[in-house]
Specification:
The chain has 9 helices and 9 strands. It is α/β, with parallel strands linked by helices. It binds 3,4-dihydroquinazolin-4-ol.
Amino acid sequence: MRIDVVTIFPSYLAPLREALLGRAIDRGLIEVAVHDLRDWTHDVHQAVDDSPYGGGPGMVMKPQVWGEALDSVIGPVIDSPARLVVPTPAGRPFTQQLAHEWTSAERLVFACGRYEGIDQRVVDHYAQRMPVDEVSIGDYVLVGGEVAVLVMVEAVVRLLPGVLGNPRSAAEDSFSDGLLEGPAYTRPEVWRDLPVPPVLRSGDHAAVDRWRRDRALERTARLRPDLLAALPPDALDEADRAV
Ligand SMILES: O[C@H]1NC=Nc2ccccc21
């Protein structure tokens, strides 16, 4: 998978080259290119934004600059293998399911908006030619899309074959079965007078699996009842319903 990010703060994306993602790049599992939007400005001030039509606070990013940048980065959009992703608080929610969908994309191109966003005609123009997703990572407002891109790239790349050491990890994520993960423990057996739940040291795998499922159901019911409500009817068996 090739990932391109266009931003006015390229250094914000430096973490993409660290740790797990950095290793995925080194191993050739992904290619990552970060582009400075200002490279496509032609004025001495390298202006990328302007006042909003209709008035109002803040600034809107100029369509011309974005058009030149995205044409250059995406290349010929006819039958382009790329998806254009525009992080915005006014977008559809980014979810684990969307992360899985994007793993089949040959290319992901992220357009990082700052200020009050990007002139809508940029999305409208490219949406006529290729898949464009306006996506939010949550109902709060960040200063720009760069942090959202870090979140989304990590969520997608970790799902790619070969990236995680243990593929079971991705299969057993929170949300993979629609529930939150239950609590996890490691040595020592007792820490500050707090013991590890004995069942986890019993060696009885069926009992451990049941215990973990019960804790996940309890945690989900307590913290995310919406996830429980969204489960398909056959997702919970009789033992689950007893929790
Ligand atoms: O992903 C969004 N969530 C919240 N705030 C944002 C601000 C700019 C771009 C994207 C987002």
